[in-house]
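Reminder: ligand-aware prediction takes two inputs, not one.
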Amino acid sequence: NWNMAGFRDAEIGRIRQKVGKGRVICGLSGGVDSSVAAKLIHEAIGDQLTCIFIDPGLLRHGEAEQVVATFRDRFNIPLIHRDASDVFLGALEGVTDPEVKRKTIGRLFVEIFDEEAAKLGGAEFLAQGTLYPDVIESVSAVGQSVTIKSHHNVGGLPENMKMQLVEPLRELFKDEVRMLGRELGLPEEIIGRHPFPGPGLAIRVPGAITREKLAVLRQADRIYLEEIRKAGLYDKIWQAFAVLLPVRTVGVMGDGRTYDSACALRAVTSTDGMTAEVYPFSFDFLNRVAGRIIGEVRGINRVTYDITSKPPGTIEWE
Ligand code: XMP
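Here is what comes back for the chain with xanthosine-5'-monophosphate:
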């Protein structure tokens, strides 16, 4: 007999009690989780909350602009926007190992939060939109000595972090977070948004990351999502994204030979991200997307569709 309005009220009480008159900074990513966490905390403590949006240079097309427009302009929540792409991409230069990517990104997010918090004159609390599946995947990874993936918003925090964590969504699954978001009056376009991983496009470019590769990936990803929305399929899918593969293949374009990157498209259904099924697009749909990507994105000349379920695959490629 789960009651979201009750959960909201209880959680608002818990946040007030924990935080007192302290300052909270919330790492806003633009995703559902941090958006719901930020709105909930803002309802609890108002402008004791400042949101810090760090753009790591690893977001999708148009996302940074959208975050600022939504939270600063629409919700009037105090928001600091820090473009940290130079720092992140510099630190990731030449890094190929997925876990090193995650840890590097997690560490930088925390360091930059600390910096921004210091500029604000200090904050006692750091709020995060950590969900239950993040918590249990990390805990079981510790217990089993085999780490599948360290989620940077749970496992990657350094022990010397100065701030205490506020994680009001820790007991919730994704569908419950969406219910809570509706309860809080967040717009459907945010609530219905596909999850996006903290390490962002870094784990969708297997191998070393460059600005050029990210730019190519962003274009393919934008076209793919555009076609998914146009076909009315966005809400039927848990996550959909393009992956830029670290392999070049030969193609033919007009009279010429091409030698460019291949990309993979991924789309899955899921209820909590723990297991996932491939989304069964029509052949026509896939053909249309592939045609557009190859025709419009310079640097990609081959498109594949990933038909791996989770398990044994994972949703992300890294
Ligand atoms: P996997 O790839 O493990 O992903 O099947 C399960 C869900 O988690 C997201 N994901 C992450 N989210 N930090 C995050 O915040 C991470 O390091 C991370 N890795 C994967 C993934 O997008 C999917 O929703």
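The longest strand covers residues 239-253. Residues 102, 149, 151-153, 195, 197-199, 239, 273, 310, 314-316 surround xanthosine-5'-monophosphate (CB under 6 Å). We will return to this case in the review session.
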